[in-house]
Design goal:
Helix content: 40-55%
Oligomer: single chain
Shape: elongated
Strand order of the largest sheet: 2-1-3-4-5
Length: 506
Amino acid sequence: MRSESILVVDDDANLRKTVSDILRAKGYETETAATGREALRTLSVNRPPAVALIDLRMEGLSGTEVLRRIKERSPETECIVLTGHASQTSAIEAVNLGAYGYLQKPYEVDQLLLTIRRAVERREDRRALRESEEKYRGFFETSRDCTFITSREGRWLEMNQAAVRMFGYRTKEALRRINVRDLYADPDDRGAMTRTIEREGAVKDYPVDLLREDGSIIHALISAVLRVDGRDRVVGYQGTIRDITERTRAEQALASYAVQLSEKNEELERLNEQKNRFLGIAAHELRSPLQFILAYSEFLVDEASGVLTDRQMQFLSIIRSSSEFVVRLVNDLLDVAKIDAGKLELDPDSTDLVALVRKNVSLNRTLAARKDVDIRLEHETLPPVVLDPDKMVQVLNNLINNAVKYSPPGTTVEVLLGRQDDRAHMSVQDRGPGIPADDIDRVFQPFETTKSKGPDGEKGTGLGLAIAKKIVEGHRGRIWVESEPGQGSTFHVTLPIRGEEPGELN
């Protein structure tokens, strides 16, 4: 750390040397001058000293004149004047000119060192204060918010340029002519705010409406503190004003949009209920005639063989397969309508899941045999599971039928049933074309179908897996698929063996 420099100005050579030696011994750097003019030349060549010791009675320039010129050239230098009894009046005059103090000759060494040390400390304090004020001034002027100091009566004492822009005036002088009270849209707001400041000492983000010069409203937040004098009397306020007009408008617009969105959602819910009602009625009315068409087409196919031509039999087969598809679609639509309306309820019961799956696999083997596809079941022993048997059969039929539909002839559908911790785990694996990666996330969405087709070109209704997912989740279970194109697909279902009973589907 650089030591402080002391300039000793005295026409007494012995005193200059003695003081200089003492100060060097204490770690100070020293410069000496025998006359005032020599002192000023030294000042112009070297860095300004921290402290100047100046004898008031010198030939040529007086000590008082030297003091005045040093303070002009280096205001930070603290000056200590040295005087005898006869020049105390001059010493007092020097103090009035800015000297830190004076020492009366002869003086004690300890008194000299103490005075110099205190002068150095004062210099450092003044420098720190100046730097602090400069930083504060920089913040004051560069803040994007209005920064202010006002009197208690509402006179502007200080403001930054942001205040001028905020209130729409051309200059600080123009704004300064306006009393702060007149800038409030509601004059009572300022009184309420200042009472709060004086009661609590400060306010933070106090909301007010202010007026621009053109009469438009500024929505603002004021943060301010009290200003008091040496007797703790309130003399004013200082703080910042933040313009939140644009934010307030955005919030109001957002609130308005939220209201509109809520109204639209209510309208959509009403339309969705109407759609579900219509879908349920339409599907219900279609199911009976379609079932008749399917039954009679199956009867004709079985009874007309050998009576009708091959072309006519082909037409009947198309009628039957189309009828089967439409009946499945209608049944699925009824289930979807019930689920969307929250009316598809579960009827849970303690069920032997192994027996349920074994029976379903056995029934589906007849369909699979027509396509030369085998179904193989492997299972572990499981305790009873609380579930709705009819709804779970619906899930099984969908998964196994899909596996058979997408499996090439001569392959096997693997059905595995076991236990994973406190859950029953079932998987259905086929050897079909697999599901493309970009379709995996959509297979359980209503009316979504994959790009994959079965060997005979069959496609589903796009509802079966969506219904299966709702049923499984209604049982507090989980369903998912793992698949790679060309490697087949495996659908997994887990169901809790113990725990919460199933609830309503919605």
